[in-house]
Design brief:
Structural class of chain B: mainly alpha
Shape of chain B: globular
Protein name (chain B): Cytochrome d ubiquinol oxidase subunit II
Strand order of the largest sheet of chain A: 1-2
CATH architecture of chain B: Up-down Bundle
Membrane topology (chain B): Multi-pass membrane protein
Helix content of chain B: over 70%
Keywords (chain B): Cell membrane, Electron transport, Heme, Iron, Membrane, Metal-binding, Transmembrane, Transmembrane helix, Transport
Family (chain B): Belongs to the cytochrome ubiquinol oxidase subunit 2 family.
Strand order of the largest sheet of chain B: 1-2
Strand content of chain A: 5-15%
Strand content of chain B: under 5%
Oligomer: heterodimer
Low-confidence stretches of chain B: none
Largest sheet of chain B: 2 strands, antiparallel
Distance between the termini of chain B: 75 Å
Number of helices of chain A: 14
CATH topology of chain B: Formate dehydrogenase/DMSO reductase fold
Organism (chain B): Luteipulveratus flavus
Number of domains of chain A: 1
CATH class of chain B: Mainly Alpha
CATH superfamily of chain B: Formate dehydrogenase/DMSO reductase domain
Number of domains of chain B: 1
Helix content of chain A: 55-70%
Amino acid sequence: MELDLARWQFAITTVYHFLFVPVTIGLSAFVAGFHTAYLRSRNPAHLRLSKFLGKLFTINFALGLVTGIVQEFQFGMNWSDYSRFVGDIFGAPLAIEALLAFFLESTFLGLWIFGWGRIPEKLHVASIWIVHIGTLLSAYFILAANSFMQHPVGYRLNPQTGRAELTDFVAVLTNKVQLVTFPHTAFAAYLAGAALVLGVCMWHLHQRRVEDDLPMYRTGARIGAIVLLIAGAGVAISGDQQGKVMTEVQPVKMAAAEALYDTQKSAPFSIVTVSSLDGQQEKVAITVPKLLSFLGTGDFNGTIHGINDLERAYQQKYESDPLTRAQTYTPTLPLTYWSFRLMIGIGMSSMLVAVLALWTLRRGSSAPARARWWPWAAVGVTLMPVLGNAFGWIFTETGRQPWLVFGLFTTKSGVSPGVSAAEVATSLIAFTALYAVLAVIEVRLTLRYARAGAEPLKKPDESTADSDDDRLQFAY
Amino acid sequence: MELTTVWFVLIAVLWTGYFCLEGFDFGVGMLFPVLGRSEERRRVLLNTIGPVWDGNEVWLLTAGGATFAAFPHWYATLFSGFYLPLLLILLALIVRALGFEYRHKRNDDQWRRRWDAAIVVGSAVPAFLWGVAFTNIVRGVPIDADKEFTGSLLTLLNPIALLGGLATLTVFLLHGLLFVALKTDGEIRSDARALATRVGWVAAGLGVALLVILGSDRGGAASLTTSVLAAGALLAALASNARGREGWAFTGTFIGIALVVASLFLMLFPDVMPSSTNAAWSLTVDNAASSAKTLGIMTWVGVLFLPIVLLYQGFTYWTFRKRISTHHIPPATDERDWAPSGAGLR
């Protein structure tokens, strides 16, 4: 009971946190990019876009920030035995993330938000770039911690204490899983940021409310679409590499992604299945022959190990030790099977919208985005990568079950022994209720500012017209 | 010095940074209903900490992460044991931070009133509960042979811990008042100074009482020295405030809080969480620590990067050093001021 509640809590708080993180990482690059462009071009449209996206960025950043505080402490609250077991290795990247990344992000975002008219322009632009670098550093260290859970390296088990101890920190930071996961996650974050820029600008191009603003939104949409396509390609390539590493270090996750029960050469990949996934009956599915083998091994004739074989092998290997004993070593199949497809399908659909956008924005088309469905496509393209990111993490984390640290430590051994089910239920309800309210507030605020569009720049004579004016250019 | 001792000191430094910096943020937040009698005054209060509050809070995240890395058992026992108070702190920090960041996003009185409530409650709850938590940590709580906390919420809400909570609440209130006096100008500045005089004696009294009670239990020569110095610093802050020396007054509470934290950690050492069930089951710097390898790496990271953090964080304080008063505050705006109306050009 306590275990289930603790898992639900971690799932809810973490998936929720990660709805905001990719947008934050991706969008900060656009805010910084347009601010830099303004510095060079002095084109007011670039400054307006930077400020406009900056407002959407800060609304999102705030929620990513506050839900991130919970992340720092909930390992100790609900997963104290896990914290004891792995703190030696897992705690270090977390602490480094705070020291290197969070301080940079928070301090320099403060400088950027309040810096208008108060700090030199170049420093101002540098501040938002530093925020962006901070978000990437943060991603790197937290993914290094997560990669250890997928594929533990650089440690030894201390037989006296029963704890994992660090032997090679460089190995932890350059884990082969980490080296493919970080690019995949970073590209997915740029995809999410670019999709938001594209969606918002296309919406305004369709609405055509201010004639003079159309070239500005056109610039934004075109850059958004191009970055989206590049990032999408990056997601696909890094995802492909990730599949191969996963097949090597967590073969059961690859088998679970396809619900492949029997070891097979030239294994097919099913796009959708209408039958059950329990392996009792033949799958009724639309399949692409040999594709799973290629995704997993890079060879259309490669062997993919099936769940049945792997389950037998894992039982033999792990059943003797209480830390690694589990009822089954296979993750929940419908969850892994569908989240894998939704990740790819929804995430990649955004690229289609980007192609359509580039077509309608092509040179010579004087009135882009005339079709009635463009507002829907604009909203859709904004949401797709966010959902794709979420499904990717749901796949990666549920596909690791029953393990917390793959092959080393099961999820059920990690839960806090001293915390009662009632306490976990209390915090689960509290966080879920609060997060739900905050989601409504955040989405409505984002929509308000997104719909309002880029704020016109104040004319310089307006600010000097007031006599004895020592008002701040910007204040909360 | 042994690495475990180095990390005990570093974690004390991180908590010191947190309480000295976010302490005045808590104070400013709690002062909204008192000093912020008009909308413009509330915005003055908010803007004194607007650019810096988030950086201040990162000290907490770093303290949490560093405890996880350096003393995993401390992290595990503390946060699973103090579950419900920590939950309340987290919820409070969430709504408070969003109050800071969302309040100005809409020019709407009801919207602002709601976030004001979030800021006040979200500041008061952690200001109180951190005192409760640290009093319990120093005095010891029931911990069994497996390093598990065996008490309940009521164990934590004992009278002395509640006194500790009141002490931190009032000291942070004083710290916030002196910060406002230092960072604002006009009526709000003189109001803050006058109120600091009245709150100051209560805060100093409670703070000293807490140090005496804890010191009589777990004190030594070193913690006695820092406790006396802490009391001296708090009194010097009050004296400076009375004479209108705002910079010195704020420095006084800043150093006073740092010395209080130093006293608490000196009383703890070499324990990190004493067990009231059996002294042999206490968590200590040795039995709660990570391997020497982790501590060694983390020492390098800390020694290299903490000074850099201090430099750039100091730079933002320098950048936003000017006093703010109501006439600096621009009119409230929101997106409706520029949102184009109508159906568009179609």
